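Record type: monomer structure entry
Structure origin: computed from sequence
Chain ID: A
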Amino acid sequence: MPMKNHLQQLGANTWIFPQDPGKDRPNLGYVRGEKMALAIDAGHSSSHVEDFYEALDREGLPLPDLTVITHWHWDHTYGMHAVHGRTIARPETNRHLLEIAERLEKDPGYGKKFLKSDPCIIREYAGGVPLKVVPADEELQGDRTIDLGGIRVELCYTESPHTEDALLVFVPRDRVLFVGDAQLGEFPSWYMDFDKMALLKDKVSRFDARTIVDGHWKPYTKKEYLLEL
């Protein structure tokens, strides 16, 4: 078992900063190439980002040049204002984040309600951790492959029962696929659209992945994940 606040290596060039259910922190991914490093998801808050970066520093790994967002939910995006380098997300992701940022600006009560809405959120923001929501620097209009220098990372849209902006992140060299929370039901009702689930399963099955990393669980083998779906 990885130690809390320590990285877990999944391949020669791929790591995760493991999830923390006590604060509803998801797994954060990290891929290092010869020229650049890329992170997957920006985390729950600036405090989450600080812990992640401290773990990178302990391993002698550089801060990410790019951070890719798997979907718009707060535990994956509200740390975006504190990340190093540029951020990339789907247009739908940015639309949600801009709407939330506008509500926070116009209605102070909205932020106060969020900060008291769940014990995990209360713990994450304890001690005056700032609540700040920003959009990504760049919108991803279609699928894209990013060359980090000897290591390619593939960004691929997928249908998902959880959100309409789900983005998969695949590292072919290490055969690791990051899926965010794509397999979960729609929040907050948790309604499950099984047609979208079938499309997600078909999409995931096409990747030559060995390890699947979802948001809030330990890494799966591909066989385990497809059985879960």
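Annotation 1: The mean pLDDT is 96.
Annotation 2: Residues 8-228 form a domain with the Metallo-beta-lactamase; Chain A fold (CATH 3.60.15.10).
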